[in-house]
Every structure is written in C-alpha cells, then in structure tokens.
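request received
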Amino acid sequence: MGSEAKSQASNAHLTTPTRLTGAEILWATLVGEGVTDVFGYPGGAILPAYDALRKFPIRHVLVRHEQGAAHMADGYARASGKVGVAVATSGPGATNLVTGIATAMLDSIPMVCITGNVSSKVLGTDAFQEVDITGVTLPVTKHNFLVSRAEDLAAALRHAFQIARSGRPGPVLVDITKDAQQATAIFDFEAAKPRPYRPHPMLSVKESGLEQAAQLIREAKRPVILAGHGVIESCAMEQVRTLAERAEIPVGLTLLGLGGFPASHPLNLGMMGMHGEAWVNHAIQEADLLIACGMRFDDRVTGSTSTYALKAKKIHIEVDPAEINKNIKADVALVGDLAEVLEQLLPRISGRDGSAWLKTIASMKGEVAVRDIKNLPDSGHLYAAHVMHDLWRITGGDAIVVTDVGQHQMWEAQYFHHEKPRTLITSGGLGTMGFALPAAIGAKMACRDKEVWVIAGDGGFQMTAAELATIVQEKIKINIAIINNGYLGMVRQWQEFFYERNYEATPLVSPDFVKLADAHGIAARAVHTRGEVEDAVNEARSTPGPFLLNFMVEKEDSVYPMIPAGNALHEMIRRPGRDPLEERADDR
Amino acid sequence: MLHTFVAYVEDLPGVLTRVASLFRRLNININSLTVGRSEREGLSRLTLVCEASAEAGHRIRASLFKLENVVDVDDIAQAPAVTRELALIKVAASAQNRSQIFDLVDVFRARIVDLTSESLMIELTGVESKIEGLIEILREADTKILELCRSGKMTMRRGHHTSSVLKAMGAQPEGDAEEYDAPGKATRKGKAIELE
Ligand SMILES: Cc1ncc(C[n+]2csc(CCOP(=O)(O)OP(=O)(O)O)c2C)c(N)n1
Ligand SMILES: [Mg+2]
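response:
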C-alpha cells in the first residue's frame, strides 16, 4: 500500500468508530497522536502488533539492541520536542529497554515505550519470556500501564502520551498482553481521549512571590541566572534572554541547559558545575542573588551544598514542586511553567545597571581565562579539545551534536559553543555510556535536514556500536567522531586525581574503528594530528553517506577545571603548569 | 518527626505499590498504613504514618501528588485531627480469670466480640496510647495474648474546612499560602470543639 493510501485508511479509523484488533488499535492510536516514526525490535509477545504495522503510515526503525531503541526514541524527542516511541517484546526485550528508560526519566524526556507481554491468562506464572516489566520500570517511569484488554488500549495509550508530554515530561511504558493485541474492540479515538490534564496541585505562583522576586532582582548587586534544561523544555529562551538583557544579569548554564541561551551572547558565562568554567563557579559563589530557571541544583552543579553560594538569596522557578528546597533552600519559590512565570515576572523588571558586577566577572575571566587552542604551535599532538573546537568552527556550530558520557562529553560542552536549543543532546542525569550513537539516529530521524554528529569515547561507543548496522539499513547520514584515548578516560582521570594513578580496569583495547566501519560499508578515516582535522571533518561532511572519524587523541589528558565530588564550588583543580593548551580569553 | 499523610488514590491495581515504592526509595519505614473506600466514588482513602525529617514532608507530599493515580494528599502534621486505631486482641481466658478481664475491658470501653471456653477476643478502638495501655495492663495481669491485630492509624482533620473537603466542593484548599514558606504548618479556620 502506498503511504498515501495507508494514511487514508488509518485516518478513517480516527474519525469513525471501527472494530479493530488490539494490534491495529495500537498503531491507529499512535497515528492519531501524531507519531510517524518508531524504534523497535520484534519478538513473540509483540508479533501481532508487528503483523499489523504495514497497514499504518508509521516508519519503523529496526534497532540492534532494545537499549538502542529507547535511546533513539529519546534522541528523537530531545531533537524535536515530540514524544519518542520505542517498541520491544516481552521479557529480555523489555528489560533491555530499562537503561534507556531511566536515561529519559532522569533528563525528563517525553517518551512512550510499548512492550508486548504474555497472554493475560498466564500473567504471573513465569511463562516463557514473561517479566513483570511494569514492576521493573515503576521507579524509572513517570507512569506505566499494563493493558490486558483490547478495549482498554486506546485510552491507556492516549493517557500515556498525555502524561509523557505534560508538566515535567518523562517516559511512560505501556505493556500490552498478547491476547489484548489479538482480540478486537471498537476503536473510538475521540472517546479514548484522556481526562483533562490535571496540573500538579502544588504549583504556586503568587503575586507576593513575584513581587518579592522582582524586588530581590532590583536590589541585587551580584545576581546570576542559572539556566537549566527547563528553559528548553518550557521554550523559555526568549523570556530568559529578555530577563538577562533587561536587568543586565549574567547567565550560567547547566550541561542540559546548553543551547538555551546563546553561547555568543555577551551575558553568557558558559557551563557551571563540576567541569564548568572557573569564572562561572566563582561568580556563583560570590553572587548575592541566584535566579534558578528550570534547573534542580544537581550535585554536579552545586558541589558541596553546605558551602554553595552562601552569600546568595535564591529565587527558584521550577515546574516540579518536589524540586523546591530539595537540595538548596529557596528564598522565593515560583512553582510553575518557566515561560509562564517569567512572562508574569518580566513586567515588574525594569532596566538595571549591572555593569560593575559584569566587570568583576570579566576580570575573573581575565585571570583564569579560557584555554585557547587556536593559536597553539602544532606540537604534533592531537587533543580532544582541538577536535571539539575545530568541529564547532567548521560546522558553524549549527549541527546537532550528540555526545556520549565521559571526558569527551565535557570537552564538547566546554569547546563546542551552542547557540540554539536542541543542538546538544547528551545524557546528563543518568550519564549513560552508549547513549550517543543510538540517540543520534533518533535525532536524525526527527530532523532529517540537520547535520548530526556523534561524539563518543572509545569506551562508550563500543557499548552500542552494533547500531552502526542500523544506520546502514536505514540509510541514515550521520557523522561519527570517536575520541579515542585508549582509556575509559573519565574514570582514569578520577584514578589519576583520587586513587594514586592506579589505572585498574581503565586501559581499553578497541577494534580498529575504521575497519569496523568498513565492515559495515561505512566510510571512515583515522586522524592523528591536528593538521588533518579540518580536512577529515570536511570529508565527512561532504560524503553523502555516514562517515566515521577515529580521532587518536592524547591518551592521558584530563578535563579541567574539576571540582572533586563533594568539594565546594570554588575548590577546583586547575590544569597544572603551562600546558600545551595555553589559556587565552578571546577564543569565542 | 512523625508525619501523617492522608491521600485519596484511584481504586486500581498497583496503586498501593506506587505509593509504597516512593517511601521505599527514600528508605523511609512506613509505621502504619490503612486503606479503604472513601466518600468519593472510585477513590480509596489511605492514612500513612512515617518517621521523616520535618523538611521531608513537603517533598513527600509533592512526590505523592506526582503519582498519576494520586488525587489528593494532605500532610496532617500538627493540625488538629482525630486519629483512631482498631485492635483485635485474642487472649487466653478460662472461667476462673474471665471476670477480671471483663472488668478491664469495661474500663477501656472495649468490647468482647468472641468467647470460647479457653479464650476471648477483645475489640478496642481508640488512640494509640489507649490500645497500648490495654495491652500493657493485660500483660501485667499475666494474661496470655494469643493473637494481636492492629489496623494502623486512620486520621481525619477536625472541623469542616479540611483541604480535601474544600477541594471536593470545588474551592481552593486553605493553608495553600504556607505551602512553600512553612512546610508542615497547617492552619484551620473556624473554632472546633474537642468532643473526644
Ligand atoms: C553504562 C555506564 N557504565 C559506566 C559508567 C561510568 N563511566 C563514566 S565515564 C566512563 C569512561 C568513558 O570512557 P570513554 O567512553 O572512552 O570516554 P572518555 O572518558 O575516554 O572520553 C565510565 C566508565 C557510565 N557512565 N555508564
Ligand atoms: Mg576513552
């Protein structure tokens, strides 16, 4: 069936109540919810659903491991803001999703996972490939459903989409027994509409709170805006920018906030926290007012909470009431959707002169300055920072970059400057190695006309490298940069700093990634020196198909600055001596 | 401090697991938990008592509200409320010592609900201290307690203007103003006469 005929057939289902099988109801509901792409892997318990798939205008990407399916759905959601969908069979298929679900949960990503389960008659009997997946995923989903009747399916699915995308978004799992897929029921899309969304009853934005916040902002001498993932999730980029500009307040970003405020903006201080720039962390410690926008004072951002920003009053604007006073006590809490709260706050904010404080911060920048890598005499060594910097320069910072977890992730955050939201996709909360390649596939599926780069370590890449075959099968053009340092680098760095260089279990033997790519029919090239970087990146970009670059970087380089876990935010380890990576402030 | 949460939850499979799981995750022991039908169709009412820091109350309540099947949550904290527990106590009692137990049961305003030649069952409702008192006295009197079953606490705010009643009537819950500056502090409009 042509895709047009397909969509007509399914659209008829959406307007006229029709008797369908549970399997058909599944896809018809997804179509009704606007789903066009799903990522999955079949198996016995989900086979009825797969059997019905070809009747519906949905593209299915066959993954190589269900973890990949979850990360792809996640990357799809992060890149587009739409709900990502992953599909798996019962038992091992379902449990393979769990890491991906937890990754989405910790970063508040809207996602719906569909799993098949054994027939309702044998539920709870340890039937073949039966696992209690709603039990297993209960703590890592926003909500989950076990559906054992075809007539309940549409409502459960529609409710799942509502939950996934509302309030603070998150993953929802819908487990469907095999008999529910096989049975028939009247499908009535309209009637299956969930009850109206019920906002969290403890949301509270009061006149008095807004007035207090405005007053604190008016009176502050050394304010800093802390912008988190909520800025992007709530689409509050404009409002944050207006606040910053109108009141001349500098903005520090969390890892997941990168892109929420333009990197090139003069008020942008860059990333804060464990591997944040020294001046941002100093500014926070010296601040007399923090305006936290859609962030949750994660321990990677605060360091020790008992020494965190002691001189500062805190305004916490956050959509999740459970985050208020969790890690850091708020003086004023405005609990609601960030964009809406700022809309109410902005009329109370008038021009404010922040120049003295900005000058102080600039002088901190002067002292500690960014590590310049641009004007280095070529020492013959290749540093990961070079790669990030050149990638940023060559792509014009316009690509979607999907990073894995480790040193390369932090270097990317430091050296690739993101101007726009949803251009950096990374696992922040869970820190899931193996995330990058599958998440990038999802991102590319969501944004077909965007340039997509994977930046992964040699360790993490191997965790989900099987998805290379998915790229080939699905003909997906993405570029892959492996930052190959021969180590589980971030762990090695901890061993260097805190375990007397006892490099236990961190040296890493890898396959020849160029040959691995070649075996998949993917063009690839190794890069050993800085001189080759530009040409290699250009080759990757101009090649029509996927391209893998294996960057053989300095093995024992570390990410600086670093705040050891549990230290105060200003107690950071700086790069020792005059390293090859000289420091200069004008590198932006 | 001791927290008492009263929640209305949807009467569906798995809901109790979700509530209990939240406390498990925080490594908080649930001292007592009672669940049963409520005045609202399709909703169960539960009373959950646990020990947690004063600040934890706000977050637990907020987290409970985040559960999809939880409709309403009240943190009773120190607010005026009636708390009751039901106990069934089966004790060894023969014709010789029965009357002595009858006297105790009378004093405690309890009831005998079952009687055999070797044992009898006492039903007692009241506050925790009352139930503990009877158990203590029975032990001191060398009465052998064969079985003891306690329901756990049920709690209801005193007065008309409780947050859940107001919300059920479609009005704004009171005490909302203190939500963020005085967690756990609850106020109540109107004057209550303590009847018991
Ligand atoms: C699934 C998973 N296992 C273990 C870790 C702990 N961990 C964090 S970073 C890291 C090393 C990553 O090594 P690599 O992928 O080579 O990146 P590099 O740090 O060298 O850039 C490890 C093992 C993790 N984050 N995720
Ligand atoms: Mg490595």
